[in-house]
Design brief:
The chain is of the alpha/beta class. The protein contains 21 helices and 14 strands.
């Protein structure tokens, strides 16, 4: 007790002493940097001692070039080929095809790539939409996937009395000038520029690559790629989804609890379901009125505004605080238990029949991905993009809106949807039982029995909906999967993709990437015979261009390998390539080709081979 009393009496002095001691230690550590050899000299000395004569060293432009001269060293930097524009990498230039080709050619011809500071790695990865190819190049380089090995780094970190401070992630104005980090890569595999280009264009196929922070923190020894753990792939998204539901539920319930004052649980059990519907409807209205598109940011703004409204209501109204407190004391734990039981029912069904959730075609695959990516109301019809989707899509929109807020897509998204759906149905079932049965233990028992048929019935009801024809991603060939991945990452939002010469009308690759697609030009766009004409093997580039502009199409997908008549597909590709004023080929691999209008931002990257 004496120690606790002393701490309590002198808490301010102890806090002040801790701050002063820490500040003094760090100050001495930072001043000590200036008594060490500068990283430029240390790195240059090592290169002059290690590298043979005439090796070619390239580095980024608008940055310090290494090696520099080292006093009293027997060799001079002039023994290396490292000066001049030909040895600069113009990484800050816009990502045009010419820029990317030039960078990769110079890298391929080099022996070493040297970054004198982390400026490039600490800036361009922050804007991947502006520098997609350059960011892919940097992540692949640090990930040692381009035939280069990270052999040395040089960095002086503040150190004093055994305490070391890692400031690799500090702002560059704090660290770059007096103790920058030098990073040196060696060309060990001698890959051609064409192979480097292929790898950069297919960066997504290399799996997990270093993030920006991991690149900045990396020392010699290189990148040790770690596969995504179940924690990252499933547990964390589950926790985020649960937290997101709770925030939405509180926002709705706290704002409207007075409207449910006659209910025994004050509407607490209904709040997850009604809150999600209400918040999604607000986002729907905002997009329908052209105020803001449906993005993750706008989703957070809507949910944040609802949550803030609830806080204001609870703080400002004594009546609201009383209703909230009473309901939480009497029903809070029971509602959460019912929510978790609904999730458990879905898990049990899933374990008993793993295909049950995988075959939820209405929200699986293209439809689910499409509504996650879609930003407009009403969206275009995924099967007939020339038309607007009708009102029956609202339930699918809600699921896509929810996943957009959680930040989850891909294979786990449909399973997460079903788990969340089971939870909100379970909570609603308890609320229904609690308001029909006065005694809470009896209401809990009844709801526990009813949750099972209600949740399973909800899942079966979704299964009974008319299924959207589609091809499961698992059934695609490796080349088709590669194209689907490329489309998903490269084509933003929810534009219309023109799907041509693919195996079936209803299961095009763009739709597997969550993009609507059409395969026929309408009669109004067709030739003089007035009949719809297939886009497979079309010979008139101008007519195709006009049709794409009319329907808002952003890309034209051509698959010679999947066409019934490859010769027609080849002729179509030649027809489009002959009109560079209208089209640019932006993807070409294993018979899969993608063309974009020449003015498109996608066109800047040029052909990926």
């Amino acid at each position: 007790m004496g120690i606790l009393d002393y701490v309590q009496r002198n808490l301010r002095r102890i806090c002040l002493a801790v701050v002063l001691v820490y500040s003094a230690v760090y100050a001495f550590a930072f001043v000590g940097l200036h008594f060490k050899e500068h990283p430029y000299h240390a790195a240059s000395r090592w290169m002059l001692d290690t590298f043979p004569d005439k090796v070619r060293i390239v580095g980024p432009h608008w940055d310090d070039r290494l090696p520099t001269g080292v006093p009293e060293h027997r060799r001079f930097p002039s023994v290396f080929n490292h000066e001049g524009r030909e040895n600069e990498l113009p990484l800050y230039e816009p990502d045009t095809k010419a820029k990317v080709d030039e960078v990769l050619r110079r890298v391929s011809d080099s022996d070493y790539v040297v970054f004198g500071t982390p400026r490039i790695a600490d800036s361009l990865p922050r804007i991947p939409d502006e520098y997609p190819a350059t960011v892919a190049f940097l992540r692949l380089l640090w990930g040692e996937k381009l035939g280069f090995k990270l052999i040395r780094t040089f960095k002086n970190r503040p150190t004093f009395l055994g305490f070391s401070f890692n400031d690799d992630l500090a702002d560059e104005s704090f660290s770059v000038y007096d103790h920058p980090k030098v990073t040196i890569f060696e060309n060990v595999e001698r890959l051609s520029a064409e192979e480097l280009r292929r790898r950069v264009s297919e960066a997504e196929t290399f799996g997990t690559l270093p993030t920006m922070d991991e690149m900045l923190l990396m020392d010699e020894g290189g990148w040790v790629g770690k596969a995504a753990s179940p924690l990252d792939k499933r547990i964390i998204p589950l926790v985020c989804a649960f937290f997101f539901v709770q925030v939405i539920a509180f926002g709705f319930w706290g704002t409207f609890v007075k409207r449910f004052s006659r209910l025994r649980d004050k509407g607490l059990g209904f709040s997850p379901l009604l809150g999600i519907l209400f918040a999604a409807a607000i986002s729907w209205a905002v997009a329908a009125l052209k105020i803001a598109p449906i993005t993750q940011v706008s989703t957070y703004i809507v949910v944040g505004a609802l949550f803030f409204s609830a806080l204001v209501e609870v703080i400002a109204s004594r009546e609201t605080r009383g209703l909230v407190g009473e309901s939480l004391r009497r029903h809070g734990l029971r509602v959460q238990a019912a929510f978790l039981m609904g999730v458990l029912v879905v898990l049990v069904v899933w374990m008993a029949d793993p295909q049950f959730l995988a075959l939820s075609q209405q929200i699986d695959g293209s439809y689910l991905q499409y509504f996650i990516r879609n930003e407009t109301i009403p969206p275009v019809d995924i099967l007939y993009p020339a038309e607007k989707m009708q009102g029956f899509y609202f339930d699918r929109y809600v699921l896509g809106w929810f996943l957009k807020g959680v930040g989850v897509d891909g294979a786990f998204a449909v399973q997460l949807c079903m788990l969340a759906l089971g939870g909100v149905v379970g909570a609603a079932v308890y609320s229904l039982a609690a308001n029909l049965i006065e005694k809470r233990p009896a209401a809990s028992m009844v709801s526990a029995v009813l949750i099972i048929p209600f949740v399973i019935g909800t899942l079966v009801l979704r299964e009974s909906r008319e299924a959207l024809p589609g091809t499961p991603v698992e059934e695609l060939s490796p080349d088709q999967k590669r194209l689907v991945t490329w489309l998903s990452k490269s084509v933003r939002g929810a534009p219309v993709a023109v799907d041509a010469c693919l195996d079936t009308l209803s299961s095009g690759l763009p739709r597997a990437a969550g993009l609507p697609a059409y395969q026929r030009i309408s009669q109004q766009d067709a030739s003089a015979n007035g009949k719809p004409e297939s886009l497979c093997g079309i010979q008139d580039a101008s007519m195709l261009f006009d049709s794409m502009m009319k329907h808002g199409a952003s890309v034209y997908v051509l698959s010679a390998s999947a066409a019934a008549t490859p010769a027609r597909a080849s002729a179509a590709a030649s027809a489009l390539e002959s009109r560079p004023d209208l089209f640019a080929k932006i993807y070409d691999r294993d018979g899969m080709m993608v063309f974009a209008p020449a003015f498109s931002s996608l066109y800047r990257l040029g052909t990926s081979s």
